[in-house]
Known about the structure:
CATH architecture of the largest domain in chain A: Orthogonal Bundle
Helix content of chain A: over 70%
Oligomer: homodimer
Largest interface: A-B, 60 and 59 residues
Distance between the termini of chain A: 48 Å
Radius of gyration of chain A: 19 Å
Amino acid sequence: MEKLSRKDREREAKRVMIIDAALQVMKVNGFEHSTMDEIAEVAEIGKGTLYLYFKSKTSLYLAISERGSRLLNEQLGKVLLLELPGITLIEKMGFTYLNFIRENPLYFTAFNYFEHILNEGQMTNSPIIEQCENHAKEAMTYIVRALQIGMQDGSIKNSYDPKELGIIIWGASKGVMHMAFLKNHANHMKILDDVEFDLQSLITGFIELLGSGMKND
Amino acid sequence: MEKLSRKDREREAKRVMIIDAALQVMKVNGFEHSTMDEIAEVAEIGKGTLYLYFKSKTSLYLAISERGSRLLNEQLGKVLLLELPGITLIEKMGFTYLNFIRENPLYFTAFNYFEHILNEGQMTNSPIIEQCENHAKEAMTYIVRALQIGMQDGSIKNSYDPKELGIIIWGASKGVMHMAFLKNHANHMKILDDVEFDLQSLITGFIELLGSGMKND
DNA sequence: TTCAGTTATTGACCAACAGTCAGATATATG
DNA sequence: CATATATCTGACTGTTGGTCAATAACTGAA
Lengths: 217, 217
């Protein structure tokens, strides 16, 4: 049972308010072109105060990613509770992910930012990075659970290692979503210009393709 | 037939040399933490000169991406010349891509940077962006051609639209490669820590999975 | 209510770095 | 050799992430 003092609750509320302000600024200026000065201004606090709540711009951005993955995980967790064959759970998770990034494109950008930071190898041993990693691990676990359920109920081939298959599904989904995201958000994307498709049909095709690779005959 | 004057050839050679210098600096400092001052120093030119050859840091980074995708396309193009079933061409392209980013991780980072720039919607109508997009489109065409060959020779189901399938394969491959890349380069990546795998086996699993979704029975 | 001690806030300031430009240097031409 | 043109340069500027000494707000005891 968590018992937070009034101080702690106020502090937490302010943290949330700052993240709201940051998202608001980013909606206008884009993710990278938002400045700490403007975020502080919108949050109606001094810039120094901003740095009392987030020790760097990177930290603030990661906090956005953290919130996003927390929200997404809540939804993925609910899918796992449904009484459905494993293969259907996997499909539903795919669409849950799709709808989430469609409704929250900024969070998707934040997810990519998080991975970029991991890649660059900076900010290791930071608590916010750890939280983000835990969320990612949790999402991964939801997928693996669904796969295990599917292997149990016979809806998914059991010739793959569920964890390895989980990584593949996770990675491939992110890649395809990213593609779809580009189509919708980039002004011009020559690769995609030739192809008539909407997000939904692309993802449906993708899930079908993966599905027919995983499904038991 | 391109006939370049000595001037033009010298200019081109210097451009190449600057990109070499930039890659060298990035190998040490990482992609983002390299400064134009240091790149100029390593290239043994003044900073002002650097800006005569690349109009911004972004342009220079995109030039690296451009070179990378040009090199990759050369290899993909060669695969397409082999006398093999379409499904095998697709598999070979997958491994070509894998080996390329394994041997040239910096180019892979550059590719991601290019997509990031597209996402942010900056630098539209810049010639270097256009070149990068053309390369991406070319790579995409190689995949689609291989799919068409496979649909012709019967090794690939023809129930999918080859272009849509191409986008799916392209996106999914990038996503899975990215995952594998993280495992190798990020210091810690909790999602991946649990799973014992090497790049090769993950990609093999992925290609097998996609393959069994595409293959004719 | 007062006041010392503690905590929270602030914005002027600093350092780093992308990008500029007036002047210097090299090269071509007659 | 002299002039014109092309190329190069690094000191300078503007912006922005991050700091810190000064200030304000709060707290609890007398």
